[in-house]
Amino acid sequence: MATFERVRDILTKSLGLGERGPRLQPSTALLGEIPEFDSMAVINVVSALEEQFDIMFEDDEINGDVFETVGSLSAFVEAKLSA
Q1: Which residues pair with 69 in a beta bridge?
Q2: Within the chain, where are the H helices?
Q3: d(CA 60, CA 14)
Q4: Whether the predicted model's global pTM rises above the 0.85 cut
Q5: What is the pLDDT of residue 1?
Q6: Do residues 44 and 81 make contact, with C-beta atoms less than 8 angstroms apart?
Q7: Which of 9, 28, 49, 68 has the highest local Cβ count within 10 Å?
Q8: Cα–chain-centroid distance for residue 54?
């Protein structure tokens, strides 16, 4: 499974999006667009991504640029995996 699909699945489960989850696209905005994506959800998503991909987020990497869209979050995970 590609990184984008894995990230989308994690977002769907962590945010409880149900049938809305599969409709998430790389251009789908996260912050301010998905009501379930609040500050507590960010922590849950970060934890799930770290566990599923065996990566670590540094505190300064948890920012609006990374979490702007599903695509930006997927690209960040890809970069971490390639590092």
Answers
A1: 29
A2: 3-15, 39-53, 70-82
A3: 22
A4: yes
A5: 78
A6: no
A7: 49
A8: 14
pLDDT digits (tens, 9 = 90+) for 30-74: 988 999 999 899 999 999 999 999 999 999 999 999 999 999 999
Locate tokens 């640029």: which residue? 65
Contact indicator for 30, 37 with CB cutoff of 8 Å = yes
Residue with tokens 């999006």: 17
Alpha-carbon gap, residue 60 to 66, rounded angstroms: 10
Handedness of CA 67, 55, 49, 38 (dihedral sign): negative
Residue type, 79: A
The rounded distance, in Å, linking the Cα atoms of 7 and 13 is: 10
- Alpha-helical (H) ranges within 16-69 are 39-53
DSSP H or E run through 61: none
Both tokens assigned to 39: 């500050």
- Angle of helix 39-53 versus helix 3-15 axis, rounded to 10: 140
